[in-house]
Design a protein that fits this description.
Structural class: mainly beta
Helix content: under 10%
Number of strands: 26
Radius of gyration: 25 Å
Largest sheet: 5 strands, antiparallel
Strand content: 15-25%
Length: 494
């Protein structure tokens, strides 16, 4: 790995002294930002975060930084505000403080805490380190299963307090999967959803984040406004006065881990999209509501529509029924208006807010991502029936196989990312909406989707040349052999 000095291949002395005014008196004041790219990290630190020049951004480490000090990760130029490359401030959330503290190069980056970062140079923020340490969620009462990262929340002093919380993982986590844990005796814990915590007067259900020019809020229950914590992002949470009876250490924000190194990885699953029920007296029931006819055949009991997100999040504001998607522009940023039509404002990628995966959106323009292009599995090229963008029989980099296509999309930097890959069979299957057909996918978020087989990277157990496919005409799955098929790339997860 290159040394940190590669961050600045040549540190240029400035002829003009730049002064930065940093108003620190109020909570909602300023935002923090950027710099040249640091050395390429190894997972699980992730693919980095784009940082514009001369902009404040709220950032956080998405791993256990190693080394942990700011000077090692950001270079040693933290002496500002004069002739400096970086400025960094943390928030002191103590009830008697509630103020900003300027950080020095010797200060540490700590998972679960955030900072305001400013840079004079544009680039990508990449951190080196190891996987964020987690603990069993059950250590803090019943509710979440698996493993969690527990962020200490500062109990109130009888008034509302503000605290900056850092997202500690290199993959997205939905805010409605986060829990607030509280203990009145240091032993017995109760877990709350953000909305439940608000009702209990412990913490507001909303969180605040800076979009580069203003604050926005997300919560865990408002259709179309359910938040998703992003890698290397920090947020404001508002501690409410009801927590004043709690002691330090007995008040936590639990962020569930979707991936655990060296263990079985558990990833959230989408629901089916089926919102109607069978076993009805005459045909299917168009809803999931039991009939009042007392003949025993009309009662809806334990059917698909009775369980999961299709029940708890059954609205179409951000995807059909329990699905939840976000449209991303060519820079990988959420579109400000999520209601736009693809014909007027096309988007390049879609983030699945449930699984955390980000998906390629197909086009109908005869370009690199055209919906009609077909590909052979892996590196095969039979030179027969090849129909894909830029194909040249004399150039292996243009072959219509999945390996070459993945490399071309990586090089093109779709949605400003270079970690695109073929999906596993289960990942691809997570897109199927079994409540519709032709295509069996939410085409309000996935335009130009075909009602045909889409190739996964998961091989059949008896052949290295046959992979699992998902048929998006009806959601069936089968083996796809020595022929070319449609593909849809993904990033994140695994």
């Amino acid at each position: 790995m290159q040394k940190k000095s590669s961050l600045y291949q040549m540190k240029r002395k400035r002829n003009i002294i730049r002064r930065v005014a940093v108003p620190l008196a109020a909570v909602f004041c300023c935002v923090i930002g950027s710099t040249d790219a640091l050395t390429a990290p190894t997972p699980p630190c992730g693919s980095g975060r784009a940082l514009p020049a001369k902009t404040w951004l709220m950032t956080a480490p998405s791993c256990e930084p190693s080394p942990a000090d700011l000077a090692s990760q950001y270079s040693d130029d933290l002496g500002g505000p004069y002739d400096t490359d970086w400025l960094s401030f943390r928030w002191n959330s103590a009830p008697t403080a509630q103020n900003y503290v300027k950080q020095a190069g010797t200060d540490s980056l700590v998972p679960g805490t955030g900072n305001w970062l400013y840079s004079y140079k544009a680039g990508t923020l990449l951190l080196e380190g190891t996987a964020t340490t987690t603990v069993p969620c059950s250590d803090y009462g019943s509710g979440l299963v698996g493993r969690c990262f527990a962020v200490d929340l500062t109990p109130s002093s009888g008034r509302n307090l503000w605290q900056i919380v850092g997202h500690p993982f290199s993959y997205p986590v939905s805010w409605d999967d986060v829990r607030v844990a509280a203990s009145s005796d240091g032993t017995t814990w109760t877990q709350y959803t953000p909305s439940e915590a608000a009702t209990a007067n412990l913490m507001a259900k909303e969180y605040w984040f800076w979009n580069g020019s203003s604050y926005q809020t997300k919560d865990d229950s408002t259709p179309g406004a359910i938040g998703v914590l992003q890698p290397q992002e920090s947020i404001w949470v508002r501690i409410k006065s009801g927590s004043s009876s709690l002691s330090a250490g007995d008040f936590k924000l639990l962020i569930p881990a979707a991936h655990e190194p060296n263990t079985v990885q558990v990833q959230a699953l989408n629901d089916t999209g089926i919102t109607w029920s069978g076993n009805y007296a005459s045909g299917n029931n168009t809803t999931c509501v039991s009939s009042n006819v007392p003949d025993g055949d009309n009662v809806v009991v334990a059917q698909d529509c009775s369980h999961g997100r299709d029940t708890t999040h059954n609205d179409d504001s951000d995807g059909h029924a329990g699905f939840s998607y976000t449209k991303l522009d060519s820079n990988g940023e959420p579109l400000p208006d999520q209601t736009v039509d693809y014909a007027t404002t096309p988007w390049a990628c879609v983030r699945d807010n449930v699984t955390g995966l980000i998906w390629e959106v197909k086009t109908d323009d005869d370009g690199l991502h055209d919906k009609d292009d077909k590909y052979y599995i892996m590196y095969n090229d039979w030179n027969v029936g090849n129909v894909c963008y830029g194909y040249n029989s004399g150039d292996p980099t243009t072959f219509c196989n999945t390996e070459a296509y993945v490399n071309r999309v990586k090089a093109a930097g779709l949605c400003e990312a270079a970690d695109w890959r073929m999906p596993t069979f289960k990942e691809l299957e997570s897109l199927v909406n079994y409540g519709r057909s032709n295509p069996a996918i939410d085409n309000s978020y996935f335009p130009n989707a075909l009602s045909s087989a889409v190739l996964s990277r998961s091989l059949m157990p008896n052949s290295s040349e046959i992979a699992w496919c998902v048929d998006f005409s009806n959601g069936d799955s089968n083996g796809c052999g020595l022929s070319s098929f449609a593909v849809r790339l993904v990033r994140g997860g695994q």
